[in-house]
Write a sequence for this structure.
């Protein structure tokens, strides 16, 4: 890391968020290693990056040469702990289970150089609790990206109890180099974005459940009446109904309040496998 500049990163998790973070960082000139539990999962992530770049080339938004250079900056692996030499930043984007994240951070901490920053892409779990699995609380923070990462302009940085200002400054510079608008919030349940977004989404689900209006018209009310770029039900389909359910349950446990209680329609849809766009069906039907 040179003059607060993060140059080499590892992204752990090649799923929806992970491959998007890897693509965005590589497009900004970073050397990226994308890791997951198996070669097959990593290859699938690389395939999605390639498809995303090809779509941008076909749409005239990106030159073919630039797309090729972006892809060339991404290496792959299945063991991030073995690949930490010279790495400035590790971004974790694995499933939202705190025991998995704490175990990963503990193993990363034991092998990483003292200066390496460890960041979690969690959308709601306590970053301070994750940092306590390490001996470098000053160099652990939340780096919450939004889906789809290449298109969404926001990066929410989460300051845990022990996070140093130098770490926040380095991550802010990194986010700005990726073309993101950066906000900094303290480590509270749901941070700023999930707490607000989930509350709105759950109320929209209750309205649908009560027959107030169709999903399309509820979404249109927010899109046209309040200039939201996407309605809360369509956004839930994009994020994943299972992800939204996990966040709602976490917020309800931590904060209480009926506004965070998952409505029955959400529980039922998740039980039925209607998880949103990633499976072709949620509150909407997707091709």
């Amino acid at each position: 890391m040179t003059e607060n500049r993060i140059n080499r990163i590892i992204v752990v998790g090649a799923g929806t968020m992970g491959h998007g973070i890897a693509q965005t960082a590589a497009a900004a000139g970073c050397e990226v290693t994308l890791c997951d539990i198996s070669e097959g999962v990593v290859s699938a992530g690389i395939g999605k990056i390639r498809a995303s770049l090809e779509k941008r080339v076909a749409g005239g938004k990106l030159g073919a040469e630039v797309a090729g250079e972006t892809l060339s900056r991404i290496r792959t692996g299945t063991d991030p702990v073995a690949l930490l030499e010279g790495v400035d930043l590790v971004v974790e984007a694995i499933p939202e289970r705190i025991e998995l994240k704490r175990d990963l951070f503990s193993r990363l901490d034991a092998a990483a150089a003292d200066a390496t920053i460890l960041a979690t892409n969690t959308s709601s779990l306590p970053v301070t609790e994750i940092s306590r699995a390490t001996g470098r609380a000053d160099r652990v923070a939340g780096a919450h990206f939004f889906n789809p990462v290449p298109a969404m302009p926001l990066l929410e940085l989460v300051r845990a109890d022990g996070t140093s200002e130098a770490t926040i400054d380095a991550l802010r510079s990194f986010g700005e180099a990726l073309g993101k608008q950066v906000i900094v919030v303290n480590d509270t349940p749901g941070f700023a974005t999930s707490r607000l977004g989930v509350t709105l989404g759950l109320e929209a689900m209750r309205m649908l459940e009560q027959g107030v209006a169709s999903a399309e018209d509820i979404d249109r009310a927010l899109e046209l009446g309040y200039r939201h770029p996407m309605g809360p039900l369509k956004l839930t389909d994009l994020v994943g109904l299972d992800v939204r359910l996990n966040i709602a349950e976490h917020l309800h446990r931590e904060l209480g309040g009926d506004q965070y209680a998952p409505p029955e329609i959400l529980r039922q849809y998740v039980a039925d496998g209607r998880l949103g766009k990633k499976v072709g069906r949620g509150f909407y039907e997707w091709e």
About this structure: DSSP finds eleven helices and eight strands in the chain. The mean pLDDT is 96.
